[in-house]
Write a structure and sequence with these properties.
With 302 residues, the chain is an all-alpha fold. The chain has two domains: 32-119, lambda repressor-like DNA-binding domains (434 Repressor (Amino-terminal Domain), Orthogonal Bundle); 132-291, no CATH class. The chain contains 15 helices and two strands. Helix 13 (246-257) crosses helix 15 (273-291) and helix 14 (262-269) packs across helix 15 (273-291). The protein is elongated and about 70 Å long. The N and C termini lie far apart (61 Å).
């Protein structure tokens, strides 16, 4: 579909028309990668104060098409309409482009379809690389982010995809992150959400089965009987870790499964060092009470 000519924007400071009906919630069938760019776009749309009708008029696309895109209903949106909305809402196109491509593949679109969409829109505005401080942030935190993702995701490609998506979302929302109370905490929440949306869950808790078996493999135990006993013990331990509250779970994973010291964990999570030590101590006491109820609390996990 070819969009209608884009009408001129009203002068700065001119109030928009009467408030119209806001778009409904994102459809249940929208995939992880699709949500990664759709949710920030919807947030920027809400903050803009525009109505769906005004967004339609300024982008040059039919209101029904704009409404479908904002809700994630209908067919996966082509890049032409997506880019038009980005331009109206003043959203950087390059990070969304990469997220859009990943979501297109998630929607089983062929490479020919993706390339055909992209070739119709030339990105001539905005930088093709993240800001310098974002790139420094990525270099600093990528190892910890990858380690965390690999703990929950069975395949390395999936872990790398989750981390790459997190950094693209941060590029998209970088100014929001910088103006948040703590950029590290803001970024960690983005990364954690992406990892948990991909992780397997049992009874609503993340499944750490893969991490448990990795522990067994690394133990290099020669005795089959001992190996089976270690498997049983590891499974029980990792199931209990998966049921910890979010902050305690993250501290345990980074501190004991990824080998980071307390200060490094506090830095990457964006929380005080005292909070990390408290979470670690409380989590260990809880795990000891669950796995070894006869033992005194406060033991260290091997």
């Amino acid at each position: 579909m070819t969009p209608h000519p884009v009408p001129p924007r009203p002068p700065e400071g001119l109030p928009s028309g009467k408030p119209g009906r806001k778009p409904g919630p994102i459809a249940d069938g929208v995939g992880i990668a699709h949500r990664a760019w759709l949710e920030p776009l919807r947030a920027k749309f809400t903050a803009s104060g525009l109505t769906v009708t005004e967004l339609s008029e300024r982008s040059g696309w039919a209101k029904s098409k704009v409404s479908e895109l904002l809700r994630g209903t209908g067919l996966y949106p082509r890049w032409e309409i997506t880019h038009s909305l980005l331009r109206v809402l003043d959203i950087p196109a390059w990070p969304v482009r990469r997220l859009w491509m990943a979501a297109a593949r998630e929607a089983h679109k062929k490479d020919e379809w993706i390339d055909g969409c992209l070739q119709k829109v030339a990105l001539t505005t905005g930088p093709s690389n993240p800001p310098l401080d974002h790139r420094a942030f990525e270099e600093l935190n990528e190892p910890a982010y990858l380690g965390y993702a690999r703990t929950f995701l069975a395949h390395d490609d999936e872990a790398r995809e989750a981390v790459a998506e997190a950094f693209d979302i941060l590029w998209l929302r970088w100014q929001e992150a910088l103006h948040s109370p703590d950029v590290m905490r803001f970024a960690w929440n983005v990364l954690r959400r992406g990892v948990m949306s991909r992780a397997c869950h049992t009874d609503g808790c993340p499944d750490l089965t893969t991490a448990a078996f990795d522990t067994v493999v690394l133990s290099k135990m020669a005795c089959p009987e001992g190996r089976f006993a270690q498997i049983e013990e590891s499974m029980a331990l990792f199931q209990a870790i998966g049921r910890l509250p979010a902050q305690q779970l993250d501290v345990m994973v980074l501190r004991h499964l990824r080998g980071m010291d307390f200060t490094a964990v506090a830095d990457v999570l964006g929380i005080p060092l005292a909070s990390v030590r408290f979470a670690d101590r409380y989590a260990q006491q809880h795990l000891t009470s669950v796995l070894h109820p006869k033992n005194a609390p406060g033991g260290t996990i091997a």
